[in-house]
Amino acid sequence: MNPEINAPKNGNTIILSAICIVFALGIFLLDISTPSGVAGGVPYVILVLTSLWATKKAFTLITAITGTLLNFLGFFMSFDGGMLSIEVSNRILAVFMIWVTTALAGHYKKTNDEHEGLIRDLSHLNKELNEFTYVVSHDLKAPLRAIHNYSDFLQKDLKGTLEEEQEMYLEGLGEAVCQSEAFLEDLLQLSRIGRKKVILKQVDLYPFLNTLIAGLALPKETEVLIEKHWPTISAEPTLLRQIFQNLITNALKYNKALKKRIEFGWSEKGKQALEIFIKDNGIGIEARFFEKIFMPFQRLHADSEYEGTGIGLATVSKAVSKLGWSVCVESVPEQGSTFYLTIPKKR
Predict the structure, then answer these.
(1) Are residues 144 and 85 in the same domain?
(2) Of the residues 76, 233, 253, 284, which has the fewest C-beta atoms closer than 10 A?
(3) pTM value > 0.90
(4) What distance lies between CA 145 and its chain's CA centroid?
């Protein structure tokens, strides 16, 4: 075992033991200084409750036994103050409360341990899934690239010698390979987010967005509206680029307007956060799909209508979560969509 890991736990146990001893002595002195008719043993319940902070399960049992013994000792040492039947019933009540609290504390600790175990298992499985996704996506790219190249070679070498139906088969093969390559690339991007270590940097959003938009080479019919005054935020630049790039791509892909429009803006959201919005004039989304669109591989349209892999908004959601932000959407079918990024100021 690593002593550096266990040292803090041992230190906490010693401190907690000292606190419990002080509590026990204090309650005992209070107990023997009051008439025996008063339920002086009941405060020992506090002693049991303090054991919730202990890492060892036996600590709760020890505090319960200690409280019970001191309760009975207090019965004999406190001065006479009432009827014996009342004194005995009060002490029995105190013991009952001590052990009921002990049982509840034990159940809480057991449930909490199971909960932490499930979280550890889930984290481990999630890590394995990310690694599996990355390996599979990476290893499949090479054979797909080879199929793509051979398909191109065949089309060039056999050009003019194939029947129309045969040419259609080769074109279909090429398109299928392109779609698979795009899917694997999106899958790789999604898996990389889970593996990426977040190192926050100060990002001035106005030049960042302008550089990103210029690099995307948007269609000429696209109108981009962006405010000039933007805040500087703490973010991981690569994740930030993935978020905005996927939202912009999505806004253009699902858009039938002759003149496509994307608007960027931001506002204060109380004192604790700021909110960035990306608004488009696309086809919109029905309210019942607002949560579904952020899940991997979820598509609302057939490939014949709109090409895509169903991973873009899932990548946005995962990157946003990695940064400790949140994302949501407001939309009306045929009236466009607005995506909101909520960023805590403390980050």
Answers:
(1) no
(2) 76
(3) no
(4) 35
Helix (H, G, I), strand (E, B) or coil at 269: strand
Distance, in Å, from the CA atom of 79 to the CA atom of 110, rounded to the nearest integer, reads 40
- Tokens representing 278? 């990306």
Q: Could you identify the residue written with the tokens 């309210």? A: 287
Q: What is the tens place of the pLDDT at every residue in 207-259?
A: 999 999 988 878 888 999 998 899 999 998 888 988 998 899 889 988 888 89
The residue out of 148, 170, 195 marking a domain boundary is 195
Domains: count for the chain: 3
Question: pLDDT tens digit string along 5-60?
Answer: 343 445 566 777 777 777 777 777 777 776 654 455 677 787 787 777 777 777 88
Residues 6+ apart with CB under 8 A from 50: 16, 19, 20, 23, 63
CB atoms under 10 Å from CB of 197, counted, come to 6
At CA 228, angle to CA 225 and CA 232, rounded to 5? 115
**Are 81 and 38 contained in the same domain?**
yes
Angle at which helices 312-323 and 237-253 cross, to 10°: 150
Residue-wise pLDDT tens digits, 169-201: 888 887 777 767 776 676 676 666 766 677 888
Contact 34, 78 (CB under 8 A): yes
Q: How many residues does the chain have?
A: 347
CATH code, domain carrying 332:
3.30.565.10
Domain that holds residue 93: 3-123
Mean pLDDT of the chain: 79
